[in-house]
């Protein structure tokens, strides 16, 4: 057995100086120039408030699929530990847990990557390219069509990338461009299935691995690298063997998880007049049917712009039912576009209350027909996932006006 040496610390050694006109070229695009003008001063202030030198010379990104989070870590010298700058919300998710293995599976990759491209004129506002497929993916994924074109991008819609809102991708793009201009040619990106330190997230992963035990070795290696960084705040070196498996070079043992006490039994509360939770139209499809190779992707009748408007409009209408004390929530929704283009099997996350759930079910089932997935012009079913962003409506202050009678 032989190994590919894939070092995550090689990103920290001296790199060839970037082209002097890198930022000049980036800012020649209006979106980038506007982003720098609107955001750079804000970022500098935030760095100063956290006692972080600006700009960072080294940057590291961690993404967590189930938790819908993206972390940015920075430092100035290779020997220094990384410090977390900020955690952003990933606003949509395609696919499910597990790695990307073929074109058209709508999966976000899981593994160890780096940013290899800046797209100032992306159709999704701004985009940072991810080097999928890497050496491991080229061994383990479909040899003919492993897929590609994976980005961190804006517009908050996705069929397998890491989507952010436009303001967030602008911040990330400015951070990455400044770091690139400071000399870091490759910005490392780790994509994890879950935040392993969170009991709920780890439990979701364990449930998934019971159904897909073939992914357990990958999950174990991802967890090991996760905890190594959590402890050391440095990036490890990774080997990729001839079977495409990741192996961390440094010796490290995953810490044992404390056994949490059993939760107290909640008192029974009888509720009246609570509308029942709708489930919508259900059709039966096997996992193999939903993951089979396709050449044509499902597409919304009004295109990506139309689907984004649908999602935005729905989010505004859902604000009426926002739970008390919440300012903003993200509601994951899974659905299947069947071979006739009809939306079925709409599943709404439990965080949505009954009113939200029922409105989402109703709207999705009233969608105009999609163009279904296909292979050789044969229509096929395909499962999709989308987060609905709901922001509470601003409170309207009612000022009481007291009229004082004038004395004669």
Description:
- The chain has 408 residues and is of the alpha+beta class.
- It has helices spanning 22-27, 30-49, 135-140, 166-181, 199-211, 216-232, 287-291, 303-318, 354-365, and strands spanning 3-7, 58-64, 69-75, 83-89, 111-119, 127-130, 151-153, 162-163, 187-192, 237-241, 246-248, 328-337, 343-348, 373-375, 378-380, 382-391.
- The protein has 2 domains: 3-248, L,D-transpeptidase catalytic domain-like (Beta Barrel); 287-391, TolA/TonB C-terminal domain, CATH 3.30.2420.
- The protein is built from 9 helices and 16 strands.
- An 8-stranded mixed β-sheet has the order 4-3-2-9-5-6-7-8, with helices on both faces.
- A hairpin with a 2-residue loop joins strand 14 (373-375) and strand 15.
- Helix 2 crosses helix 4 (166-181).
- The longest helix is centred in the first third of the chain and has 20 residues, at 30-49.
- Residues 5-17, 269-274 and 398-408 have low confidence and may be disordered.
Short description:
The chain is an alpha+beta fold and 408 residues long.
Largest sheet: 8 strands, mixed
Q: What fraction, in percent, of the residue positions are helical?
A: 25-40%
- Average pLDDT over all residues: 84
DSSP E strands, number: 16
CATH class group of the largest domain: Mainly Beta
Shape: globular
Rg of Cα set = 24 Å
Q: What structural category do the secondary elements indicate?
A: alpha+beta
CATH architecture of the largest domain: Beta Barrel
């Amino acid at each position: 057995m032989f190994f590919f040496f894939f070092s995550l610390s090689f990103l920290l050694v001296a790199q060839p100086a970037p082209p002097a006109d890198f930022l000049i070229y980036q800012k020649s695009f209006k979106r980038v120039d506007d982003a720098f003008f609107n955001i750079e001063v804000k970022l500098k202030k935030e760095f100063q408030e956290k006692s972080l030198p600006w700009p960072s010379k080294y940057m590291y990104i961690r993404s967590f699929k189930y938790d819908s989070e993206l972390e940015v870590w920075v430092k100035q010298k290779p020997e220094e530990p990384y410090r977390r700058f900020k955690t952003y919300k990933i606003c949509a998710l395609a696919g499910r847990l597990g790695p990307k293995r073929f074109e058209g599976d709508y999966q976000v990759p899981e593994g160890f990557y780096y940013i290899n491209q800046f797209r100032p004129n992306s159709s999704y506002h701004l985009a940072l390219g991810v080097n999928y497929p890497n050496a491991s993916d080229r061994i383990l994924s479909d040899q003919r069509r492993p897929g590609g074109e994976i980005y961190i991008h804006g517009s908050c819609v996705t069929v397998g990338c890491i989507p952010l809102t436009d303001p967030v991708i602008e911040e990330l793009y400015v951070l990455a461009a400044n770091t690139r201009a400071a000399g870091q040619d490759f910005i490392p990106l780790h994509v994890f299935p879950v935040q392993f330190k969170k009991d709920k997230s780890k439990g979701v992963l364990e449930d998934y691995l019971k159904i897909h035990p073939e992914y357990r070795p990958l999950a174990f290696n991802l967890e090991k690298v996760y905890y190594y960084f959590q402890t050391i705040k440095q990036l490890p070196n990774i080997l990729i063997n001839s079977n495409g498996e990741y192996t961390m070079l440094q010796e490290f043992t995953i810490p044992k998880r404390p056994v949490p006490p059993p939760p107290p039994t909640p008192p029974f509360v009888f509720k009246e007049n609570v509308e029942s939770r709708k489930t919508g139209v259900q059709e039966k499809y096997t996992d193999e049917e939903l993951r089979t190779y396709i050449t044509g992707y499902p597409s919304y009748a009004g295109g990506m712009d139309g689907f984004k408007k649908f999602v935005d409009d729905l989010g505004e209408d859902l604000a009426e039912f926002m739970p008390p004390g919440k300012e903003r929530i993200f509601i994951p929704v899974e659905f299947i576009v069947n071979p006739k283009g009809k939306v079925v099997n709409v599943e709404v996350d439990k965080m949505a209350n009954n009113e939200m759930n029922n409105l989402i079910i109703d709207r999705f089932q009233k969608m105009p027909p999609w163009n279904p997935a296909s292979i050789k012009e044969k229509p096929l079913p395909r499962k999709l996932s989308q987060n609905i962003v709901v922001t509470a409506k601003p409170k309207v202050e009612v000022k009481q006006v007291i009229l004082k009678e004038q004395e004669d």
